[in-house]
Amino acid sequence: MWEFVLAVLRGQAQVDFLPHALTGAIFAVALFAAGWQYGVYGLLGTAVGTATARLLGVARDRITAGLEGFNACLVAVGFAVFLGADHLSTALLALAGSAVVTVVTGAAARVLATWDLPTFTLPYCLMASSMTIAAPGFERIWHNGEGLAALTHPAGGPTTLSWTDLWHAFFADFAQIFFMPQWYVGLIFLVGIFVASRRAGVMACVGSVVGIFTAWALGAPAAEVAEGTMGYNAVLVAMALCGVFLVADAWSLGYAVVAAAAATGLSSAMAALFAPSGGHTFTWPFVLVSLVFLVAAPAFPRLRRPDAAAPTDSADGAEGAATQVAAAA
Amino acid sequence: MWEFVLAVLRGQAQVDFLPHALTGAIFAVALFAAGWQYGVYGLLGTAVGTATARLLGVARDRITAGLEGFNACLVAVGFAVFLGADHLSTALLALAGSAVVTVVTGAAARVLATWDLPTFTLPYCLMASSMTIAAPGFERIWHNGEGLAALTHPAGGPTTLSWTDLWHAFFADFAQIFFMPQWYVGLIFLVGIFVASRRAGVMACVGSVVGIFTAWALGAPAAEVAEGTMGYNAVLVAMALCGVFLVADAWSLGYAVVAAAAATGLSSAMAALFAPSGGHTFTWPFVLVSLVFLVAAPAFPRLRRPDAAAPTDSADGAEGAATQVAAAA
Amino acid sequence: MWEFVLAVLRGQAQVDFLPHALTGAIFAVALFAAGWQYGVYGLLGTAVGTATARLLGVARDRITAGLEGFNACLVAVGFAVFLGADHLSTALLALAGSAVVTVVTGAAARVLATWDLPTFTLPYCLMASSMTIAAPGFERIWHNGEGLAALTHPAGGPTTLSWTDLWHAFFADFAQIFFMPQWYVGLIFLVGIFVASRRAGVMACVGSVVGIFTAWALGAPAAEVAEGTMGYNAVLVAMALCGVFLVADAWSLGYAVVAAAAATGLSSAMAALFAPSGGHTFTWPFVLVSLVFLVAAPAFPRLRRPDAAAPTDSADGAEGAATQVAAAA
């Protein structure tokens, strides 16, 4: 039982690549700070996903490391945000989605293992996109009036970032990974990341800064930047590519910065691509950019992938690297 | 010549995974019952696809088992339904499409073989989607006035299923695999399935029931359920995952039921996704859900894949399993 | 330095599969004839892509053959055409895009090598589509007023091709590969192709004729045919499948003609598919059709792939074949 609780907490933390139970607990606190329903959805989703994986007999090390929980966590919270947390239909769908995403994870893991790639949050993106696009077609689960399908229009409004916009954006970038726009929720998430690994925390900050700078330089509306929607993918990309799936050094840092900037630009493309169907961006930019940059890495001898068999750099708490890489291998 | 006729009939039956010539003949009767043109398109399409494969030198066992015919059959019938069966342009395009889909089948088979997966009706979905989306751009082949590109709106109308709706839906689910909405056409298809394999027939019924229940539970419009558009993917998924590509037992039955429900939900997502381009759902939900659930299966030790080398369970007529699995291997 | 210049010129020529420096120089002349900015963008883009590959340590033979330049060339010219060549923001983005596409090329090459496939212009298509769809969301890079997102409508207008339409279309098909609609620009490109390889030149002509005939037969608007937008994909497909990636003989000629016709139909589908997001067709039809027809080829014993180890048919200048095939292997 205690082992299961630890697996669930690690599952929450694995959203940010960190198989660290205390970090997972802090992430849960952050979700409760945003709204108690989100905290409940997050924990129950992770638990359902982890339990489904056990029921189906998934390899024990994947479950223990929390790798069967993080997609389910995001699916449950995502359903709560987009379908309304207070409806019974949403709760039932979130439970079902958290279970089914385990199958999608198994599929993504097997296909991507062909190129030694991890799944990232691809299973969650597939599941959440399917659900949000499908929902308006079903009257018992759609309670939001008009659908969301619309053609995009060119951005308007001010692009100048005030000091308040800037620091709100910096912290909100960590919170938007879980769809939350509040800066203080992001601050709690950042504390959780630093608790697990100083290096991961630094890279998260680097990603947030790169995301904000890129969005400003390209001319994104200031309001979007301030609530974190332009920068959360950059945070995840920077963490993934410098220290987790590539050995942290000057080359992977530069690689991660370029990738984080690319993911920021891609955020706008994914929004326009999904808009006519009523879909959302979720973490698609992070998933696509990270997969592309990681699968390309062996072509560039200057970039080194961590040796899955080697002892992890536990001094800095980056044990997530070897875990996810080993799981992908 | 007689061998070719048998291959064509098996090709028609392979739409439902059944390499059984008599079943193919019954399926042809069902298409003729829906409209003589559809019967002709179906038979000619299957024949053209099979003949193209022979011309190009495809492996003989694939041709004999009808695996080079079923996508062509659906392509031809699909063109007839969506472009109008009575136009010469449609007939010429259907012939061309039935030939070209052989190449798409070869491509899909080679790529999916990387993970021991069959093609399902992916080649047909690619071909038919391309054609329906492209057609309004060409004046000589588009005779239906306004195009179909539109944004979706949330579902409206009654969701309560009458008794008539229910049994119409149950049979129409078998007919909509071939785009036909008539319950009696579906009944003939179901007879054909039972002739080849009692187990396949039972699973088809299970899939239809799961599809109807899921659609009702989620709140799909009753009219759509009654004409079979919400349930035909569930029928195919249930047949594929319990008894054909996974050994039939309690675990694969549960797995197939979950997958059939997921495919029903995905039907709405695919409709909204294709709507702005003027595309159709075809059997995309079946293909995507079946590929995901099948490629994930090795991660779940409780699910067993049939041994392609072992003698087939001919007592129950499920010889399609080993055939398609062997072809995928 | 001289070696780098040769690699850049070969990179320009590799857009048409020709690792031939003189051809690259002629292609540059064609771009300058269309507008001096396009010539500059093309050369600088190719140079940045090639230099980035060297910086990242990509295998030397890929760089020397120009395989790290052709996607960057198209990215830079594409950005200039769609975002406006005269803006500083466009120039900076084109430089960034030409560098990043090197990573996308590495990713595509590794994934597609699983099935012995080359990347074609897939990296460019991914990059250019992302950019055009994302651009209207950013105020500092979008200077074209209203966005381009729209639903397609059925084609209208005359479909009868005049003699002027016909010969304009024939040459414009070669120019539209680089987004240029002028017949004389296409003529210069064609001269460049013939300089490198008579066979490639003949197949380019065959592709153009097939594209024009198919577009006319299906009923495409005459204006689109005349400016080359319906035929440039057919040109690339015909060259790729008969003589470069498949040994030129009667079978591959027939195969290439069918594929070129399919790509022409697919052009309309891709346009309708991207329209609601504001995206463009680019060379997606060529990439998708060529990948499908090439990955399927081993299923058809009548088609022969060139032996990468064998000496190339240098008498006819088709050294591109072995180069790209070897790079894919």
TrEMBL record, chains A, B, C:
GO terms assigned for molecular function: urea transmembrane transporter activity
InterPro entries reported for this sequence: Ammonium/urea_transptr (IPR029020), Urea_transporter (IPR004937)
Subcellular location: Cell membrane
Membrane topology: Multi-pass membrane protein
Site (Important for channel permeability): T283
Cellular component, GO, one term: plasma membrane
Recorded superkingdom: Bacteria
Transmembrane feature ranges: 23-44, 65-85, 91-113, 174-195, 202-223, 229-248, 255-276, 282-300
Pfam family, one: UT
UniProt keywords, alphabetically: Cell membrane, Membrane, Transmembrane, Transmembrane helix
Similarity section: Belongs to the urea transporter family.
Protein's UniProt name: Urea transporter
